[in-house]
Amino acid sequence: MTSICSRAVLIKSVYKLWCEGDSWEELFSSLSNLPTEFTNPYFAPSASWKLDIVSFNATLTPEQQEQYRLQFEPYLPFEGPVVLRAPSNTFSCVLHHNKPEKTIKHIYFGTFIADGQRNTNDRFNLKKRHYIGPTSTCAELASLMSNQILTQNGSLVWDCFVGTGSLLVAASAHGAFCIGSDIDKRVLRGEKKGKQVGSIRGNFDQYQMKPPELVRMDLSNLLLRSIPLFDGILCDPPYGIRAGARKTRSSATDMEIPADSHSGNTVVYDPDDVIIDLLDTAARLLTLGGRLAYLFPTLSSVDVNSIPLHPCLRVVANSEDKLTLLLSRRLITMEKIAEYEMEKREMYREVTKKSLIEQGISYNDLMKTVGNLGRSE
């Protein structure tokens, strides 16, 4: 459990429950009836201890906390010393209050096991970060995505739409060696309107972490060998809602490209093709058992099990984050379960395309509903 808490950003704390009650009388009655063979080792002269009072939905003054501690004296016959820093045992009384009355709803008592990593949200807070953009992923979600792909020390992790590098910050914090790619060279250089506004490297320097390798790359036309390479891929694909995608032009034209063009010889990248390319690339480049985690916008009314599919990838998690009454985004995690066969590439891609259309989760389905809603209003 301690190992889990060392990575969990949604856990506040974990306790081993001894007893509980709706009132102090009920709690102390249960505490008194605990078997001595269970409690005596905690009360031994060699066992140091402290007692914390934890409150939810109400703030307690130090005087109130001390008053609650004293109530436990008849029921906890400690013989060991009180140690406030790193005692043998930390006991916790957790008070759950009603809102807004602030009356006690329920009381829990037990031993403290570990804290979760809620402080991650503060340490990597976007408001304090050197370089961010309008689509930078918040620290909590980035950590969740890194956990979803089982990042560990030495993992090779790739973000194929790296942007300002938020997802790779989380993966690096978990010990990964990271690679980021993007088609927009301004983002990779940290430029805005021709001026330097920061850099991905600056973010990693801020947290004293090894910066990722950065490559300007087009997901629709990857110049990479088709060999299993990455332990994990995580990304927030541009889906045409907050930010649109672009890809390399498929054939040369006579059109003149401005010298200061940030996207070069590119055209609009159809959002459905983004997903098809993403899943196909993950199936090719992930190691067997490697994972892909990405964000996918859908209508809130769509069946929760309606997600893009690929024959080489198995869905292991599908979590919904409601953005509005109409729109949601899903954190989808997929695991590579079969080796990729190049001669079946067109079939693989057709399966993904068919899953988008038949389940009503294509970009056209999304924008048609959004557009109809706008016209009705």
UniProtKB/TrEMBL annotation:
GO molecular function terms noted in the UniProt entry: methyltransferase activity; nucleic acid binding
Protein name: Uncharacterized protein
Residue intervals of the Ribosomal RNA large subunit methyltransferase K/L-like methyltransferase domain: 128-248
One GO location term (cellular component): tRNA methyltransferase complex
Domain tRNA (guanine(10)-N(2))-methyltransferase TRMT11 N-terminal: residue ranges: 3-118
Keyword Methyltransferase applies: yes
Biological-process GO terms, alphabetical: methylation
Domain of life: Eukaryota
Keyword Cell inner membrane included in the entry's annotation: no
Pfam families tied to this protein: Tmrp11_N, UPF0020
Keyword terms, alphabetized: Methyltransferase, Transferase
InterPro entries named in the record: DNA_methylase_N6_adenine_CS, RlmKL-like_Mtase, SAM-dependent_MTases_sf, TRMT11_N
